[in-house]
Each structure stands twice: as structure tokens, then as C-alpha cells.
Specification:
single chain; alpha+beta; 3 domains; seven-stranded mixed β-sheet; five-stranded antiparallel β-sheet; 46% helix; rod-shaped
């Protein structure tokens, strides 16, 4: 199959445009060529037919004689039986000059005309024979040749005319048109099929580039590998440079984030140590504000790091392994709660993003669930393949007291804490929301069937059951 963007049935695809333009011009050229060939063939058939009529005309002229009394007679007959059969489609007639009071009609005519008189073409002369189409008996369409000839013994010229059934020309031309039409249809189909093959083969390197980019995007590769034609190789080189530059920017951003965290947290540690040596209202205020500053720094540094990570190609995180690692961690932290964890996730399910970001989102949700759960926590991950792009649906659910409906949205606001009796800064769920949005995802909170809190996280999914290349 062709990848998206190179699909034959997509109007915006290169393949469709190239084949459509070529097919249109091929059809136009073949139709024009067909009309030209048919016209040339008809002219050739008409010339052959006219030559045959002219032979008959010369035979009639040669066999005509004017008697001493001035009457015209035919001393030789044509060896063509169709001139003897009534309304056969083949006729001849000889017509002389008419004086005043003379009866209408020809002097002599073929038996096939019976009592019908053919209408003479216009422009008949002695210099050359005149050919044209005329009407015959019973509405027949005739091809006629006529000439004005002066016979010895006659003071006035006679008009000799021979006509044949034009349907012979039409039938032969129609057979040729049918043969040309089907031949050109077969030729057009062959040309369009060849064009489709040539275009697909010619654009195959673009499909390789598209597949290579998909591999990078899904984490199966880190660069565009392979051999490309000279026209495509510069594009592949530039894309590799872009991937390398993007990775360098990510590493630089991580370095800056780490340096900034170290630079800010060291002075805060000094303030905390100094305030711990003091007592009173001022020391309490300093401790409280330093704690708030630490939370804000953690929040914004995590957001900055995630903003860089979310734009990096090739990031991929195994969901099941991350679940198992995080569950082991929170089990050790909350060992005195004796919580029961139920992990539901198929092997091979992957998140298209950085592992640190995924751990932070799921870790915050698990930490929040452990604080409020009674005994049971469900962690589930499924991939929705019916969406336009595969989406990873993460569910973390507890059987605790839950939240009232009016508080389900407020709790996602940064710094919001609905219960001060439980330790925390109120930033966990808002950090999850911010990181999810940077990846184009979202988080929703609802009540579980047991009355607890159900957190549903929607994130981009990577291709399943694929090992990442080194």
C-alpha cells in the first residue's frame, strides 16, 4: 500500500496529479489522432470509389455514339449487373441540351433508375470530372461523378453521370472507426497502466523517506538510513541534519534545565538551613515561602524540560515496564498502607514520548491514588486504534472517598488542595495536565464505580511490539 500523501486516490497526491495530467493529455492526443486517421481513411476510400466511378464513366463515354439523325445511342454496355437491377444503388444517365418545348429527362439512363431522374451536381465542366454527393431513389445517398463531353456529330455537349451507393463508403469508414476506437482504448489503458507503474517506481524513494520518517517518529530508528537517488539524497541529508540538530537542542535544554535547578536550589537550601536555626514567626514565613518557591521551580522546570522533549522525534517509552517500576516504588513508599495494585496492560504498548515525562505523569497519579485509596488501586493502559491517530488511554483508579462533582475540575488548577491534612503541594495533578497538553493529550477526572477517583490520561501512542534500533 502507498503511505498517506502518496495515495493514488487522494486528489492532493503527487501520483494522482501526474497520472491524471498524463491520462488527460493521452486521451486528448488519441482522440485527435483518431479523428485525423478516420478523416484520412475516408478520403482514401472516397478516392478509390471515385476512381471506380470514373472507369465506368469512361466506358460509357467510349460506348456512346450520335446517329445521323442526331439521336444518342449506346453501342456498348457495362459489364456490371448492378446497373441492370432496379434501385440497386448504382446508376448512370446521359443528358443532352434541351431546347424549348423539349420533354424533361435524360436521353439515356441505366435500367436500375427505372423512371427516376438523378439531380445533376452543380459546377459541371468539360475540363475535369465533378464529384459530389446527391440524392437517389428511395432517399439513397449517392456518390456521383459527372462530366460535360461533346461527342462527334453533335453540335451540343452531353452530360455523362455515374453514381454509386455511398453506404459502401460509410460502412467501410465505420468499420475502420470501430477498429481505431477499440485499438486506441486498449492503447490508452496500456499507456495509463504504464504511467501508473512508472510513477510508482519513480516516486518509490519518496515512500522510503516517508517510511523512514515514520520509523524515527515511532522510535524504531534515529536517522534516515538507506540509499536514495541523487535527487532525493539532499533531502535525506537535510532531514538527518534536522534530526541531529533537534537532538542537540534537547541535550542543551536538559543541560540548561539542570544548571538552572542547581543554581536556584542551592541558595534555597542555604535559606532553609539558616531559617531552621531560628525560631519565631519570621523563620516560619521563610520556611513556607522557600517551600513554595521549590514547588514553583520544580513545576516550571519540569514544564520547560517537557516542552523540549515533546518535540523530539524518536522518543518511545514502554508502558508496562514503567507501570511495574512505578508500582514497586510506591509499594515501598506506602508499605504501611497494605495497598493492592492491579496492573492491566498488554506487552508492547508504548507511549510516544520521553520516559521521564511519562514517569512523572503516571507517578503523580499513582502517588495521589495511594494517598486516598482504601485498599485497591487499578492501573490500566489500552490503545485506541479507531482514532485518526493511535491514542494511549491510561486509567488510574482508587477506591477512596473520591471528590464531589463540583471539585473534579478545580483540583486540576495549579496549587489547589482540597484537603490540607494530607501532605502535598497541590501541584501534582496540574503538572500532569501541563505535560499531557504539551504532548497533545489531556486528563479527565471522574468518579469510579466504587465511589473513588478515576483519572483518565490520553496520550499519543507509539507503534506496538517494535524493538528500538540502536
Amino acid at each position: 500500500m502507498l503511505p498517506s500523501g502518496l495515495n493514488l486516490f487522494q486528489f492532493q497526491s503527487l501520483i494522482f496529479r501526474l497520472i491524471a495530467i498524463s491520462a488527460v493529455w493521452t486521451v486528448i492526443a488519441l482522440v485527435a489522432g483518431g479523428f485525423a486517421l478516420t478523416s484520412v481513411f475516408r478520403e482514401s476510400v472516397e478516392r478509390t470509389f471515385d476512381d471506380k466511378l470514373e472507369v465506368f464513366l469512361d466506358t460509357i463515354v467510349a460506348g456512346s455514339e450520335v446517329l445521323p439523325n442526331g439521336k444518342l445511342t449506346l453501342i456498348a454496355t457495362l459489364a456490371e449487373p448492378r446497373f441492370e437491377r432496379t434501385f440497386s444503388g448504382w446508376y448512370w444517365q446521359i443528358e443532352g441540351a434541351r431546347g424549348v418545348g423539349a420533354p424533361p429527362g435524360p436521353d439515356l439512363s441505366s435500367r436500375s433508375l427505372f423512371d427516376f431522374v438523378l439531380e445533376l451536381p452543380t459546377g459541371i465542366s468539360r475540363s475535369a470530372a465533378t464529384t459530389s454527393y446527391i440524392n437517389g431513389p428511395d432517399g439513397q445517398r449517392l456518390r456521383a461523378i459527372a462530366r460535360e463531353i461533346a461527342l462527334p456529330g453533335s453540335g451540343l455537349p452531353f452530360i455523362f453521370l455515374v453514381a454509386g451507393d455511398a453506404s459502401e463508403i460509410d460502412n467501410e469508414t465505420a468499420r475502420f472507426e470501430t477498429m481505431i476506437m477499440w485499438s486506441f482504448v486498449a492503447l490508452a489503458l496500456g499507456l495509463v497502466g504504464s504511467l501508473m507503474l512508472f510513477v510508482r517506481l519513480g516516486l518509490a524513494p519518496l515512500r522510503l523517506v516517508s517510511q523512514a520518517l515514520a520509523n524515527i517518529r515511532s522510535g524504531r530508528a534515529e536517522r534516515l538510513d538507506g540509499s536514495f537517488p541523487s535527487e532525493i539524497q539532499p533531502l535525506a541529508d537535510e532531514l538527518n541534519e534536522l534530526v541531529d540538530h533537534n537532538a542537540a537542542l534537547l541535550e542543551r535544554a536538559r543541560t540548561h534545565v539542570g544548571n538552572l535547578a542547581h543554581a536556584l536550589k542551592t541558595p534555597l537550601t542555604v535559606l532553609t538551613n539558616e531559617s531552621s536555626k531560628q525560631s519565631g514567626r519570621f523563620a516560619d514565613t521563610v520556611d513556607k515561602q522557600v517551600g513554595a518557591m521549590r514547588s514553583q521551580i520544580d513545576h516550571h522546570l519540569a514544564r520547560a524540560r517537557t516542552a523540549a522533549n515533546a518535540r523530539v522525534l524518536g522518543s518511545r517509552t514502554d508502558v508496562l515496564q514503567t507501570f511495574e517500576r512505578l508500582v514497586r516504588t510506591v509499594e515501598r513508599i506506602y508499605f504501611d498502607r497494605h495497598l493492592d495494585f492491579d496492573v492491566d496492560c498488554e506487552a508492547g504498548v508504548a507511549f510516544r514520548g520521553e520516559e521521564e515525562d511519562f514517569e512523572e505523569m503516571v507517578g503523580n497519579l499513582l502517588d495521589n491514588a495511594c494517598k486516598w485509596a482504601d485498599t485497591q488501586i487499578l492501573v490500566k493502559a489500552v490503545v485506541d486504534e479507531t482514532a485518526l491517530k493511535n491514542r494511549l488511554c491510561i486509567t488510574v483508579e482508587d477506591d477512596g472517598p473520591g471528590l464531589p462533582d463540583h471539585a473534579l475540575k478545580d483540583v486540576l488548577k495549579r496549587g489547589t488542595r482540597l484537603d490540607e491534612s494530607v501532605p502535598g503541594s497541590g501541584l501534582g495533578l496540574s503538572i500532569v495536565r501541563d505535560i499531557a497538553e504539551l504532548y497533545g493529550g489531556a486528563i479527565t477526572l471522574t468518579r469510579s464505580e466504587d465511589g473513588g477517583l478515576r483519572a483518565q490520561l490520553v496520550l499519543p501512542a507509539a507503534d506496538r511490539a517494535v524493538e528500538k534500533k540502536n
